[in-house]
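Any chance you could type out some protein's one-letter sequence along with its backbone structure tokens so I can compare the two?
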Amino acid sequence: MGDLEIRPAVADDIPAIVAMLADDPLGAQRESLNDLTPYLAAFKRLSSDPNQHLVVAVREGRVVGTLQLTVIPGLSRQGSTRSIIEAVRIHADERGSGLGTRLIEWAIAESKRQNCQLVQLTSDKTRTDAHRFYERLGFTASHMGFKLSL
């Protein structure tokens, strides 16, 4: 995998992160590189919340992957803490290289470090390749998710 660093994102990483978020059919409909203002505002909120971990994977000085890990303390499951993995993206040049596995392994290890008892994620129904990827890593499609746009 060469020299790969997984580290917390910084504001200067936002253009590269947004470009990866926009680089697929679903993201292209939702994301925009024209105005980074809302992304920078969101980054400021994320950075000030200790339960939010926006990370990037960097190789040779270039951001090549990202994900967001959210840690949620709860009452259910006997007071269990869970984590949610969101917005996993790999730069097109790096897909199939094992980088996605490394990022998910980082998220699982960090979840354990934060004393989480459960790691969960959602994936759009149309992302069948991603579903196979997550199943290979031990995730099971155990629930049906629902969303309501506000």
